[in-house]
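Record type: monomer structure entry
Structure origin: computed from sequence
Chain ID: A
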Amino acid sequence: MSLDKTDVENIAYLARLAIDENDIPEYAQDLNNIFNLVALLSDADTNNISPMAHPFDAKQRLRADVVSETNQREKFQAIAPKTDGGIYLVPQVIE
């Protein structure tokens, strides 16, 4: 498949993109390269390939769920305009 100037203009119109007239040949070349890659991937033989649930079928190494910082709530609430019972009080914005 090969795109020409009118194809690129139609695609730009459908995508609601304003493109410069001088950039159309470059866009056409880029889009043609993408279509050629898709065609190349479509030709790949996948008969003996089993489907994967996720491309990264591997165990995730997770860090230990431990507290790494000290509780500084009182320090932070000391500079807050209003607090009550450990929570920040803010002005009502919706009636």
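Annotation 1: The longest strand covers residues 83-84.
Annotation 2: The chain has a mean pLDDT of 90.
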